[in-house]
């Protein structure tokens, strides 16, 4: 069964190896996570476990979620995520997943919501090239033609055209990262390199399913 856990991104720092080299790491407060629901192909059409992490005031929980937590007999959690699995899980409702599910050297995939950058133009959002910067140019940073809008009554902008818009705030996954260190006593996982999301946001750490060389 693939291993997985959810946690909160705390920020980046660096640690030193035995030979004196330092490596950049991202610190994640991972777990303890409590299993809220166990889903199988027979009952739900796919295999997964739903886990909760963190503490939250009951007044900040919606009525449907209050019932969901009450049914599982678990206190309300700040973050609730599903971990998709290839096979049914042996974990039961109420079981706890801790940071020691991983060890140093494990390869993982980390998912999170990227930082929101607000409204951005095509140069920043899609890496478009700018126009001429000479005095007579009128299209320094404009996207240029976006389609045959005036070619008869059927003129339109083709669906999926890259245009200015909101940048960031989307789910992203960085694959094949190495776990540098696990502090089981403080529920900390140190991941080599950077991971998506701002500090304080929820991230999902899963065992890499396939390693490409």
Record keyword descriptors for this entry:
four-stranded antiparallel beta sheet, mainly beta, 3 helices, single chain, 213 residues, extended, 12 strands
Question: How would you characterize this protein structure?
Answer:
With 213 residues, the protein is mainly beta. It has helices at residues 41-44, 63-72, 122-126, and strands at residues 4-16, 22-30, 33-39, 47-53, 79-85, 96-97, 107-113, 118-120, 165-167, 171-183, 188-192, 202-207. Helix content is 9%, strand content 38%. Strand 10 (171-183) and strand 11 (188-192) form a beta hairpin.
Arithmetic mean pLDDT: 86
Rg, Å, rounded: 23 Å
| Structural class by sheet pairing and helices | mainly beta
Largest sheet: 6 strands, antiparallel, barrel
Parts with pLDDT < 50 across at least 5 consecutive residues: none
The N- and C-terminal alpha carbons lie at a distance of 23 Å
> What shape does the CA trace take?
extended
E-strand count: 12
Order of helices and strands: EEEHEHEEEEHEEEE
How much strand? 35-45%
Number of helices: 3
Largest sheet, spatial ordering of strands: 1-2-11-10-7-12
Helix proportion: under 10%
